[in-house]
Amino acid sequence: MDSDLTESISALKQAFDKAGQAPQLGLASPELLDRLKEKLRLPRRYRSFLKTCDPIDVEVATPTERVRLIAGADLEREQDGYALDAGGELIGAPTESGWRPEWIIIAHSGLLGDPYFLDVSRADAEGDCPVYTAMSGTDAWQPKLCASTFAMFVRILAINLEVARDFDIDDYDADNERVFREAVAPRIREYDPAAVKAGHWT
To answer: What's the angle, vertex CA 153, arms to CA 151 and CA 157, rounded to 5?
Structure first.
């Protein structure tokens, strides 16, 4: 596993530890990883994450969002109706609502149900790709950047969790959310200015 991903995972684990939370993590099997690589075209860095840090039961809760990561064993099922058709095969073209087969869901919003997804068509030289979200329940999917890479997405989750320790995460008052967003923005900007500019976290 490369240093960028290692540092991001370490930051997330430390944030959970400081918050007094114990996420359930596992190790995805080589057989599962091979199948996901072939079927969903998952990039190398995300497969490395699953290999060492499979999110069996992981949720990052803040005053503005609850991001629940999807375990490796559940990834194929999560794509049903999105990137996979009824027969479990990869859809070959965008759907009428604009969902693209190269968008692979890796997490959901626990508040709104919106998906977080990799765009595997935009894999970089490091074997990573950007993470987006989009509002569900609309006529057309409008993706919004959440992180420039998956490694950065993990880092941003860690930042959100760290900042949330100073807030009442069950208080969804508009003022509480606004103050949280103002506090988290400069921390994220240090690592991923493009994600701040896109506005999902801020």
So the answer is: 120
153: enclosing H helix or E strand: helix 150-164
Distance of alpha carbon 47 from alpha carbon 32, whole angstroms: 10
Per-residue pLDDT tens listing for the chain (202 residues): 789 999 999 999 999 999 999 999 999 999 999 999 999 999 999 999 999 999 999 999 999 999 999 999 999 999 887 766 666 666 665 677 788 989 999 999 988 889 999 999 999 999 999 999 999 878 889 999 999 999 999 999 999 999 999 998 887 788 999 999 999 999 999 999 999 999 999 9
Residue with tokens 């508009």: 174
Q: What is the CATH number of domain 3-198?
A: 3.40.1580.10
Sequence-distant (≥ 6) Cβ neighbours of residue 99 within 8 angstroms? 82, 83, 141
Domain residues of the chain, as ranges? 3-198
pTM score above 0.90: yes
Dihedral sign of CA atoms 197, 107, 112, 138 in order: positive
